[in-house]
Design brief:
By secondary structure, the protein is an alpha+beta fold. Helices cover 47% and strands 16% of the residues. It has one domain.
Length: 92
């Protein structure tokens, strides 16, 4: 299982990385996983939380409707919390 808080790469790619030169002069390569999107990014992007729900949560917390940027910040916070919880559950 993944040990970091991002869950590791969601769609790891393979990049050949030169690791040295053989005795016959040929370059030696090993495959290395690329960064790309993390599993946390993937979970956050697919969280079932939309702008309307984020605005509703903001309203419950603050007692007023959120402005556009406040709604986006609330959405990011909620989706991040969702992704973190999914990573925790997956690590069990």
């Amino acid at each position: 299982m993944a040990t970091d808080k991002t869950g590791g790469p969601a769609f790891p790619g393979v990049n050949p990385v030169m690791t040295g030169i053989d005795s016959d002069g040929a370059e030696r390569f090993e495959n290395e996983a690329s960064g790309g999107m993390t599993l946390r990014d993937y979970f956050a992007a697919h969280a079932p939380i939309d702008l309307a729900w984020a605005n509703e949560i903001f309203f419950r917390r603050m007692g007023r409707n959120a402005g556009w940027l406040e709604t986006l910040e609330q959405l990011a916070e909620l989706r991040g919390a969702y992704a973190d919880r999914m990573i925790q559950e997956r690590a069990k």
